[in-house]
Amino acid sequence: MTEQIEHQAPTRPAPEAPPAPEAPPIPEARPTLPPLPLQPPPPLPSPPAAKAKKDRRVLRAALRWTAAVVVFAAVGTASAYGVTRMDRTDVPGLATASDGRWDYPEISRPPLPAGSPGPSDESNRAGAHYADLRELVLPAPKGAKADTALRGEDGWLPTKTFLAEYVKGDREPFGQLLTDNGLRHIAARGWTTQDGTRTRIYLLQFSTAVVVDELFVGKLTTYDTLRYELRGSPEMAGDDDGFPTGSEVDGVERVIGDEAKPYGTEHVRQAYLGANDTVAVIVQSRKGTARTVPFQQTVVLQSQLLG
Which of 58, 111, 132, 267 minimizes the number of CB atoms within 10 Å of its CB? Predict the structure, then answer.
């Protein structure tokens, strides 16, 4: 079109011819675009889906020491207290097959009565365990011999049987402390493993979590020592330093006692756990030396059940 305009441009317009129309402006040249890529660009990653909120009332899984990672699942029904699964190698520092761990069976928390909240739910101001306390005691590991003396009547243990763990001089004041703080009942279980380690677990339930909190402040312990003396352990010093990092359980207080050397007939280890309205007392003893790993394993698993 440009060439046509250049050839037709006259030096003088003819008088009889109409004036030629003005030529439209020549558009500016546009910059050359880069060629399209042979392959389309990779798609941008999709944003991660928001994590579903966990509901403690429907938390379900099982506790067991069989894998290398803590597994928490959130499935079930609204009336279930939940099930927590913890594999036998989950506690940091207990990850090798030769460290003396016990083989605990799969266990699960019992269901809650219909409409009842879990102990740590915001609506549960008393911090009460509405599940059957007898079902919250850690079961014996595989191969252990059960201590029938701790079965009690219908699964409830008389207070005097629990107090028999302590020296005579401490039984009466400890018993009075429990009475004054409204002890409701005690569930217990005990066993002896093939290496001669004796384990006793007592769950003492009170009316509210506030009562348990007060027991942990100066009543069960004094500074770095445990206030009440166990039979066969004249001096028990507080010792929580040996537990692996990350073994604490949210909502569960823990006070650990270890018999001071020289040991008596047996080496005794003890733990107090404060979990909402319940105090757990764990005692392990063995001639010679009570092994560290099974004690820590037992304390952490029982904490998981109550937390």
Answer: 132
Count of structural domains, the chain: 1
Please report, for the domain that includes residue 142, its CATH number. Answer: 3.40.1000
For 198, other C-beta atoms within 10 Å of its C-beta total 19
Question: What is d(CA 79, CA 118) in angstroms, rounded to the nearest whole number?
Answer: 9
The whole-angstrom separation of Cα 28 and Cα 31 is 9
Q: Give Cα separations from 177 to 129, 159, 163, 211, 262 (angstroms).
A: 21, 12, 12, 11, 30
The answer to whether residue 138 is domain-embedded is yes
What does DSSP say about strands 266-275 and 252-259: parallel, antiparallel, or unpaired? antiparallel
pTM for the structure as a whole: 0.70
Find how far residue 287's CA is from the centre of its chain.
32
| DSSP assigned state of 48 | P
Q: Lowest mean pLDDT: which of 2-6, 202-206, 239-243, 281-285? A: 2-6
Residues making up the chain, counted from first to last? 307
Q: Measured in whole angstroms, how far is the alpha carbon of residue 306 from the centre of its chain?
A: 10
In-domain check, residue 301:
yes
- CA separation, residue 228 to residues 113, 166, 188, 272, 307 (Å): 36, 7, 19, 11, 25
Residue 304: name the closest of 127, 52, 90, 75 by CA: 90
Q: Which domain holds residue 215?
A: 127-306
Q: Give the three-class secondary structure for 202.
A: strand
Q: What angle do CA 181, 151, 208 make, to 5 degrees?
A: 25
